[in-house]
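Lab meeting, item 3. Inverse folding demo.
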């Protein structure tokens, strides 16, 4: 009899605990919704202010060796006069241009994977994988360079930067993201929190439905591994995106699914740098294949998570050129947006 009473007490207590957890989650969701509405209002006011007194800009470039330079083309040029990409020092990393369609592009350059990069003192305890995977001598790119082009605000956020900059402890990771490439890019197996696959091996993959896309890279979801997080965000001299030797000199990259920051416990970090204390795994059931919230219909819980998604998802429609460099001399063919890689028609809205 006493055991039965104790069991009933335990069940009542457990019920109360679950109730408190549910109320706490509702509170967090309501706070997220309120902040999202505030962000929307502030963004709209900012957009309206920028519209006032604006004219069509002509091309104005200062020192072309500056990092982060933006170039805007005039809208009233004829097709004949529209320029191709023009930059200053082609070895500059992180160059920005704007094509005639108005879409901003950036570019990053490769690094050779030299034998010294397989030393743990340079590229960490997983560095030997360069050698065991026969990647010495290959050209590679850093995910961190790609992220800086697609999501520059991440690296300029003073609350986020200490967790992803060089020398950080690796307690921030990234999930949900997916990037598509116009040629073959592979990942150094078990080196970073990124898994790359060829479209020829994954014909049903969403990112591969456009014929120009040859490969894609996505989150490995091993966000608790601090060493992988360091390789992903901050080991700038240690490439984790490997170029196929037979691939084109210039490969174009674009986001398919947005990136979400998490800590090693899987809790999502919002774009202000705050811990939402909401698990990414709780959000996943409400996501489409493109990493965005599905149509919620009358599902209130889905709508609540949509408010959180707006706070945590880093989204970009920018295109980034990955350019191979050999022996400090860039041997690339002249590139123009009129070439066959001129468009990257992945339509995230239709996915």
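The presenter then showed the designed sequence:
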């Amino acid at each position: 009899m006493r055991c039965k009473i104790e069991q009933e007490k335990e069940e009542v207590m457990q019920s109360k605990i679950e109730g408190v957890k549910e109320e706490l989650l509702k509170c967090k969701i309501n706070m997220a919704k309120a902040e999202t509405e505030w962000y929307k209002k502030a963004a709209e006011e900012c957009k309206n202010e920028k519209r006032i007194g604006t004219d069509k800009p002509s091309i104005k470039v200062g020192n072309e060796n500056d990092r982060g330079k933006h170039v805007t083309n005039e809208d009233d040029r004829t097709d004949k006069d529209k320029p191709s990409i023009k930059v200053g020092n082609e070895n500059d990393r992180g160059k920005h241009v704007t094509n005639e369609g108005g879409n901003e592009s950036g570019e990053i350059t490769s690094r050779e994977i030299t034998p010294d990069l397989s030393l743990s003192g340079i590229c960490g305890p997983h560095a030997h994988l360069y050698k065991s995977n026969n990647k010495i001598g290959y050209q590679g790119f850093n995910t961190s360079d790609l992220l800086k082009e697609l999501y520059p605000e991440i690296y300029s956020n003073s609350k986020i930067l200490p967790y992803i900059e060089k020398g950080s402890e690796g307690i921030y990771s990234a999930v949900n993201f997916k990037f598509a490439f116009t040629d073959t890019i592979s990942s150094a197996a078990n080196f970073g929190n990124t898994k790359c696959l060829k479209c020829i091996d994954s014909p049903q993959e969403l990112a591969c439905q456009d014929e120009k896309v040859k490969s894609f890279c996505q989150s490995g979801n091993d966000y608790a591994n601090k060493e992988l997080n360091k390789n992903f965000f901050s080991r700038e001299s240690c490439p984790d995106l490997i170029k196929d030797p037979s691939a084109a000199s210039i490969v174009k990259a674009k986001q398919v699914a947005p990136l979400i920051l998490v800590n090693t416990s899987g809790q999502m970090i919002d774009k202000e740098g705050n811990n939402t204390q909401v698990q990414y795994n709780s959000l996943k059931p409400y996501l489409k294949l493109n990493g965005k919230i599905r149509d919620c219909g009358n599902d209130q819980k889905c709508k609540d998570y949509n408010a959180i998604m707006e706070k945590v998802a880093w989204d970009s429609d920018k295109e980034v050129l990955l350019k191979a460099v050999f022996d400090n001399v860039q041997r690339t063919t002249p590139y123009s947006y009129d070439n066959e890689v001129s468009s990257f028609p992945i339509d995230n809205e239709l996915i």
